[in-house]
Amino acid sequence: MIGIEAIGKYLPERLISNFDRKEEFGIDDNFITDKIGIQSVTRKNEDEETSDLCVKAYHDLISKATFEPEEIEIIVVVTQNPDYNLPHTAAVVHKKIGLPESVASFDISLGCSGFVYGLSAIQAFMVANGMKKGILFTADPYSKVIDPTDKNTSLLFGDAAAATLITNSPKYVTGKFTFGTIGEGYEELICTKSLYMNGRSIFNFAAKYVPKDVAKVLDQNNLSIDEIDSFVFHQGSKYICDTLIRRLKLDKNKVPFDATYYGNTVSSSIPLILEKQMNDIDNKDSNLLLCGFGVGLSWSSTILKRTK
Amino acid sequence: MIGIEAIGKYLPERLISNFDRKEEFGIDDNFITDKIGIQSVTRKNEDEETSDLCVKAYHDLISKATFEPEEIEIIVVVTQNPDYNLPHTAAVVHKKIGLPESVASFDISLGCSGFVYGLSAIQAFMVANGMKKGILFTADPYSKVIDPTDKNTSLLFGDAAAATLITNSPKYVTGKFTFGTIGEGYEELICTKSLYMNGRSIFNFAAKYVPKDVAKVLDQNNLSIDEIDSFVFHQGSKYICDTLIRRLKLDKNKVPFDATYYGNTVSSSIPLILEKQMNDIDNKDSNLLLCGFGVGLSWSSTILKRTK
Fold first, then answer.
1. Nearest Cβ partner of B181 from A105, A124, A145?
2. Which end of chain A is more exposed for a tag (fewer CB within 10 A), N or C?
3. How far apart are the first and last CA of chain A?
4. Which residues in chain A have their CB less than 8 angstroms from residue B296's CB?
5. What is the CATH number of the domain that holds B137?
6. Same domain, yes or no, for A180 and A62?
7. pTM for the full model?
């Protein structure tokens, strides 16, 4: 059985404080702390490419797990802000890490649902092709396409990357997955010249569809909502997490909101939380529910079960 | 068991003749007919998007196979020239076809190896998630990024799309796959401002690695080279196909070169040939070897076995 053995992360040191931008955007402390819940956002350096963020997350990963680059059989990069449109970013990461020629590599284009989808995709690919060690990278630095004067995106999104090691010696294994798409809403979060988000529309989508999908994934995995120790939702904003707590009648201590100082990191939001939980020796959560949702519109959920 | 049930295709009607460009590029008839082997290349209309090419291939598919949109459980679009970087093109296709909300959808970023990789990825995903009907789209219109005055790319690449129906009632099933990556060569075929290809370098890569990979995939599938009825190689140029015939000592009648009038269509080159073979009632080939290679550098091979 394969699953998640370890997670490496990278958060750029450079922060933009949203308190410093209150006047520019006509917002108050309450908006920052209670509504979006994001006090600062991370920003990569201009000369850092998406592949560089992946490589930095990889360096964190190798400090947490014991393996040789020669053992890696597949890498997948989930991004919608690649270094180039062609080649795929995974090829650049392959070079920068110095992986063997036998490694399979490709990118998956998905946004905030990308980690959960990507978990299913890489695991399925590994099982089908008899592979035992792979890395799922998530890195979607929206700062590449954000208009810094756009209130709807500039205050929310932070840059980050995660490198999730998938092996046959897992700490977490996945249950059944759910997936969904509303192509009809593809223009609600889109990058033409720069990033555009209809925040109200994305919020309404999440508030309506995530609760239904939580019920569905619980049912598919024969679990009741009380059996879940931690609900790891995509960190769109504090407001959406609070809304999901209310609509699903969840204990708020079971729903981490961790984006306060780095922002909405798209497909890295969920692995950043998992990384923290895995390194917290006091954390004994054994059933986790993951749900990613956003760009597409797209969503995916699954259950993680702790094996040790 | 799942596999390929049917394939739909789309080739734009607009052609550019390479004979009309002999003077501009300083080439002769021999270069066109014997070296590149591509007499004309297809060009989409300017207002046709990548998703539109997919939709046209889908319309061809529904004329060849009997299914309802409501039965589709997953669509994957293989492209490196998406409509937008975000959202993924599959979401746009999802809207334009009018698929249900329950459909999983994402893009895979790969070039000329993308169809073979994509076959493994979508089939593995479907098996892992209990899905019975999905569509693998390939659509990579290089005309979006080609400099029309660049001899190395403008004479070679044509626009096209294919829609490959994957179901539990397959006409072809895949054997084991091989994959590989040489990230070190990622700058040999790259799009920065426009498409750049080091033709010599890509040729050398293919001439060296494809024969090795053919031997590997035969070995993995316990087949001898004589048991293969048709070698469906990515259609980079006639020269590369001729070189592979020579190096692998193949019967040239077993190695189709079909790109003469439409060009190198990237990830659609292999399904366009398969589509033709599937519709040729006289074609009784039962063992096919597929090999895609290019951008990345990246390659992937597999065997197709005819089931009926």
1. A105
2. C
3. 14
4. 87-88, 91, 105
5. 3.40.47.10
6. no
7. 0.97
